[in-house]
UniProtKB/TrEMBL annotation:
It comes from Panurus biarmicus (Bearded tit). The lineage of its organism: Eukaryota, Metazoa, Chordata, Craniata, Vertebrata. Keywords: Carbohydrate metabolism, Glycoprotein, Golgi apparatus, Membrane, Signal-anchor, Transferase, Transmembrane, Transmembrane helix. GO terms for molecular function: sulfotransferase activity. Belongs to the sulfotransferase 2 family. This is Carbohydrate sulfotransferase. The gene is Chst8_2. It comes from the Eukaryota. Its EC number is 2.8.2.-. GO terms for biological process: carbohydrate biosynthetic process; dermatan sulfate proteoglycan metabolic process. It is found in: Golgi apparatus membrane.
Length: 165
C-alpha cells in the first residue's frame, strides 16, 4: 500500500480491504479525555474568541455536531470506537499508570518517557477547574452539553464527569 507511507492520509481515503489490513497490523491506542475537560482546555488555550467560558460553551453548542471543531467534537464521532477494535484505551488522569503498562507491553523503557506530573495532581486540578467553569453555565447549557456528549459519556467510563451529573 503505497499510500501507507504518506504522512497525512486519512483512514477514510482507503478502501475497506486496505483499512482492514492496516488496522490488523498496528496496535491501536485510544486516548480518552473527559469532554468537559477538553472544553476547558480549549477555552484556556484561547481557541475560542469568547470573553467568558459560558459564551464559549454557547458557541460550541450553536456550532452543532457537524460544524464543530475537532478540539471539542465528541470523541465517539472522531475515533469510531464501535467500528475499530482498540487494543488499549488510555484515560487522561490515569496516564502515568496506563502509559507505564502500555510502554512495558511495547518493550520500551518505562521511567524516562512518562510525564512528570502525578495523576492525582492532574485530577485535582481538573476537578477544581471543572467546579469553577461548571458554575458559570446555565442549567440549559449544562443539559445541552450533557446531550451533546451523550455518546462519549455512554461509551467511556466518565462517571466522575460534571456532564454525567
Amino acid at each position: 500500500y503505497y499510500r501507507l507511507r504518506t504522512r497525512e492520509t486519512r483512514l477514510s481515503e482507503f478502501n475497506q480491504t486496505e483499512i482492514k489490513a492496516m488496522l490488523g497490523s498496528y496496535s491501536k491506542v485510544l486516548f480518552v479525555r473527559d469532554p468537559f475537560h477538553r472544553l476547558i482546555a480549549t477555552f484556556l488555550q484561547g481557541m475560542g474568541i469568547s470573553p467568558s467560558f459560558s459564551s464559549f460553551v454557547q458557541e460550541v453548542l450553536d456550532s452543532g455536531m457537524h460544524n464543530s471543531s475537532v478540539a471539542w467534537k465528541p470523541l465517539v464521532s472522531l475515533c469510531q470506537p464501535c467500528l475499530i477494535q482498540y487494543d488499549y484505551v488510555v484515560m487522561f488522569g490515569f496516564l502515568r499508570q496506563e502509559l507505564g503498562h502500555l510502554l512495558h507491553q511495547a518493550g520500551l523503557p518505562v521511567g524516562s518517557l512518562l510525564p512528570e506530573l502525578t495523576d492525582s495532581q492532574v485530577q485535582w486540578t481538573y476537578r477544581w477547574l471543572s467546579e469553577q467553569m461548571f458554575s458559570e453555565l446555565s442549567a440549559q447549557q449544562k443539559k445541552q452539553l450533557s446531550h451533546f456528549y451523550h455518546w462519549d459519556l455512554a461509551a467511556f467510563p466518565l462517571s466522575s464527569s460534571f456532564l454525567s451529573e
